[in-house]
Automatic annotation (TrEMBL):
Cited InterPro entries: AAA+_ATPase (IPR003593), ABC_transporter-like_ATP-bd (IPR003439), ABC_transporter-like_CS (IPR017871), ABC_transpr_LolD-like (IPR015854), P-loop_NTPase (IPR027417)
Keywords tagged on the record: ATP-binding, Cell membrane, Membrane, Nucleotide-binding
TM stretches of this protein: none
Superkingdom of the organism of origin: Bacteria
UniProt keyword S-adenosyl-L-methionine present: no
Provenance organism: Pelomonas dachongensis
Domain ABC transporter: 2-211
Protein's UniProt name: ATP-binding cassette domain-containing protein
Length: 213
């Protein structure tokens, strides 16, 4: 599902970031941990096909990303990936329900409103469908971003620093929601975090592998 070897990346003129070879066993999720600047966001961007593979091989959901053309990579990303970004990037001009329609619209497809309702129900925020993002708490907005990431049934769900701005209780709740959602949807979850609370909570789980950068 997820494996890389000989993977290296260099931003123009900067130092090279080199990743130790790794393969995720089927049925497991992944925690990417490491200090600030260690290369977590770069690896997430590579996994998401947002940065081109410069050196080495990167297999995500049965696809060798280094062999795709930029156009094929765009199509692959839309069909395979769900992302919960650190800054949630919800549109304040739109309601929650309209935000959930965006991934389909971006792919030139008809939004699936039943799917949106089903996800909002699963995340216990169906009553928020008509609100705008600025009318939500941080935790509620994060659940909306999670629902949006799941709309097109991704095979890989990426969450970048999901505990940023959350207190201890909400951090544990968000991690549980991410893991439960990934299990329910049958997708692989990758969390990037340098938060000791996240590392401690996930370190205790058999179904989560860890890569330390
Ligand atoms: N667009 C860029 N151009 C040049 N250098 C970059 C760029 N993005 C990241 N870097 C450098 O690459 C290295 C890895 O950065 P990256 O953002 O992947 O780390 P990180 O582990 O995600 O850090 P953080 O936890 O602070 O977000 C750092 O040295 C950073 O300065």
């Amino acid at each position: 599902m997820l494996a890389w070897s000989g993977l290296r990346h260099r931003y123009g003129g900067g130092a090279e970031i080199s990743y130790a070879d790794f393969a995720l066993r089927p049925g497991r999720h992944l925690l990417l941990r490491g200090a600030s600047g260690s290369g977590k966001s770069t690896l997430l961007a590579l996994l998401a096909g947002l940065l081109r593979v410069q050196h080495g091989g990167l297999e995500v959901a049965a696809t060798e990303l280094q062999s795709l053309t930029p156009r094929a990579l765009d199509a692959w990303r839309g069909a395979t990936l769900g992302v919960v970004p650190q800054r949630l990037h919800l549109s304040d001009a739109l309601t929650v329900a309209e935000n959930l329609a965006l991934p389909a619209l971006a792919a030139g497809e008809r939004p699936d409103t039943d799917r949106a309702t089903q996800l909002l129900e699963a995340l216990d925020i169906v009553e928020l469908a008509g609100r705008r993002p600025h009318q939500l708490s941080v935790g509620q907005a994060q659940r909306v971003a999670l629902a949006r990431a799941l709309m097109r049934r991704p095979r890989l769900l990426l969450a970048d620093e999901p505990s940023a701005n959350l207190d201890d209780e909400h951090t544990l709740h968000m991690l549980a929601l991410l893991l439960d959602s990934a299990e329910r949807e049958g997708c692989t979850l990758v969390i990037a975090s340098h938060d000791a609370r996240v590392v401690e909570a996930l370190g205790a789980r058999e179904d989560v592998a860890e890569v330390s950068l």
